[in-house]
Amino acid sequence: MPLHPISSKRAAAVVLAAFAVASLAGCAASDAGMRAQPQASATRAETGELGGTTWRLLDWSSKTGTEEFKDKVLVFGTDGWVTTTITHKDGRVATERESYRVVGNTLTLDKGGRLVSYRILRQGHQLNVEGDRDWSVLGRL
Question: Residue 79 sits in a domain of what CATH number?
Answer without folding.
Answer: 2.40.128.280
